[in-house]
Design brief:
Order of helices and strands: EEEEEEEEEEHEEEEEEEEEEEEEEEEEE
Number of domains: 2
Shape: elongated
Number of helices: 1
Strand order of the largest sheet: 10-12-26-16-17-25
Distance between the termini: 20 Å
Largest sheet: 6 strands, antiparallel
Radius of gyration: 25 Å
């Protein structure tokens, strides 16, 4: 027996076992052409959308019935006109469409054949679509900017760094700096399981053996489902509501503007290097430290200011020494990038945490694109700004 995983419209997910035979008792009579074939073939982890049509004047309801392998007690009825089907495993999936018009009930038997893709999908990032870091000490070095490089060139360099099974590291700079990447398949949303992981370079401090802290630079994670199936990230974005999302200290719709430093720049340490101002009435500076002498402002940008908007997390760094020499970044419980070491379970992300721009939970069949941006606006003493680093990402369901 195979364990079969379905995902339907509004992310109703069923894990069950089914047979390759249909329900012999089903009535296949139809009163009109509803635009649904008898069978479909689709690769695993590719979304199949079925949308029956009706021209009847009388009220019509549609019901999708998925049957289990052994008995009918595990059947699941989907009472939505549109069916979104996404399977992790190959096989024949029998589906019954039940159509009701007044007192008349008609059924149609459908088979969905899920096939193995060729070549096999990769669990890793397949493409970087956008990269736009904010001000930071690793901006223009991770990846390296060379005179003449355009924004498109820097996106390509980020793509070369992050794609595949052996990714390198990019830095997103201070608050708001971001990267957008995707996969060669839809990452399926399996109920009750974590679905993907975003990698960073966080680590625990030996000075805190009993606490979860060290180098933690949390990044907000957003996801998008390719609903229009055009292969680019232009559909709605949804935020992963991590452990801090509903806390009073977390600021939604936070906006911060960085102002370009005077030219020509110098390599000296500068505590008032780059001015910033936010929409909460605060202002401050990003400092230039002794370890990084290049410009911290993206060199390929001609604008005199850069503005980023998103969710801001509470400052998470504190000085353990009391004299400014030992700054510790406290990790948050779950739901963020570069927040805990990569081998920690708290770095795994559940698609069911997704919320819309109003904070309402949403149900997604899966995701195709991920956006990560730095979620903290803080200077951590001699360590410089808090800046999220990304060192890859992968689908937890593909081994």
């Amino acid at each position: 027996m195979k364990k079969i995983i379905y995902i339907f419209n509004f992310t109703l997910l069923l894990a069950s076992t089914i047979s390759c035979s249909g329900d012999d008792s089903s009535d296949t009579e139809q009163t009109e052409n509803i635009g649904i074939n008898d069978s479909y073939s689709v690769n695993r982890l590719k979304l199949l959308t079925l949308s029956p049509q009706s021209t009847a004047e009388s009220p019509t309801t549609f019901e999708w019935i998925i049957q289990s392998k052994t008995t009918l007690k595990d059947s699941v009825n989907i009472k939505n006109q549109q069916l979104e089907f996404l399977a992790l495993y190959t096989g024949a999936y029998p589906v019954i469409l039940k159509i009701t018009r007044g007192n008349d009930v008609f059924t149609k038997q459908i088979y969905i054949y899920v096939t193995l893709e060729t070549p096999s999908y990769s669990r890793y990032i397949s493409k970087v679509y956008d990269f736009f870091p904010a001000v930071g000490q690793f901006t223009n070095t991770l990846p390296e900017w060379i005179a003449g490089d355009s924004r498109e060139t820097m996106i390509k360099k980020a793509d070369q760094t992050l794609t595949g099974p052996n990714p390198g590291m990019i830095s997103l700079g201070g608050f708001g700096g971001y990267v957008i990447f995707g996969f060669d398949h839809t990452i399926i949303n399996i109920k009750g399981k974590k679905d993907f992981k975003v990698l960073g370079n966080a680590f625990w401090s030996n000075a805190l053996p009993n606490e979860r802290g060290g180098s933690s630079e949390p990044g907000i994670i957003m996801v998008s489902y390719d609903k229009n199936k055009n292969g680019i990230p232009d559909d709605d974005w949804f935020e992963m509501a991590g452990s801090e999302y509903y806390k009073q200290e977390t600021i939604k719709n936070y906006s911060l503007t960085y102002y370009q430093p005077q030219k020509p720049e110098t390599a000296e340490v500068n505590p008032t290097y780059i001015k910033w101002m936010d929409n909460q009435g605060n202002t401050g500076f990003k400092t230039k430290n002794q370890f990084h002498s290049q410009s911290y402002y993206p060199e390929w940008v001609n604008s005199s200011s850069l503005t980023y908007t998103g969710t801001k997390l509470q400052d998470n760094y504190y000085d353990l020494s009391g004299n400014g020499t030992n700054w510790i970044g406290k990790s948050y419980e779950f739901g963020y990038a570069d927040n805990v070491p990569n081998d920690d379970d708290a770095s795994n992300i559940d698609i069911d945490w997704a919320v819309d721009k109003y904070g309402n939970k949403v149900s997604l069949p899966g995701i195709d694109f991920i956006k990560v941006y730095t979620g903290v606006n803080q200077e951590a003493g001699n360590l410089g700004e808090v800046s999220t680093e990304v060192t890859g990402a992968y689908d937890l369901h593909i081994k």
